[in-house]
Specification:
Mean pLDDT: 90
Structural class: mainly alpha
Distance between the termini: 29 Å
Number of strands: 2
Strand content: 5-15%
């Protein structure tokens, strides 16, 4: 449930980024052609491709740089390799693409002993539940 909520938060962030790109394109149009301000009306395939690219770069970039998207940060999750190190660019891009192409892979999480999605199994990645780790470390003291 935690990972699904993180994915939901991330979908809102990606939608916001998409809106920002759309508004930026409209502002650029005004700068180039002059008033009036109006939103562009790209073909559906182009909107879909741009949305997919934004989501891919958002997920892969965050997993590469910090191991956490906004949703992950909010819910105390971190994506790493099995060793605990951050993902490299190729693995983060592949994981992001798999998450976008096959989102039902998250449905495997409750059935897995190590709470792994299909994407985690394929790429040997781990989603660490940091809030739970902090609680258990704090209780041991």
């Amino acid at each position: 449930m935690t990972r699904a909520l993180a994915a939901l938060v991330d979908s809102f962030v990606v939608a916001g980024l998409g809106l920002a790109v759309h508004l930026g394109a409209a502002a650029l149009r005004v700068l180039v052609t002059g008033p009036p301000f109006r939103l562009p009306d790209p073909p559906l395939w182009l909107s879909g491709a741009c949305g997919w690219a934004i989501a891919l770069l958002y997920l892969a970039g965050n997993w590469t740089l910090t191991g956490r998207t906004s949703g992950d940060r909010l819910l105390g999750l971190r994506v790493t390799g099995r060793s605990g190190r951050l993902l490299g660019v190729p693995r983060a891009l592949t994981r992001a693409a798999l998450c976008l192409v096959f989102p039902p892979g998250l449905l495997w999480v409750p059935l897995s002993r190590r709470r792994a999605s299909v994407q985690d199994l394929v790429l040997s990645t781990v989603v660490r539940y940091e809030h739970a780790e902090r609680r258990s470390t704090h209780q041991e003291r």
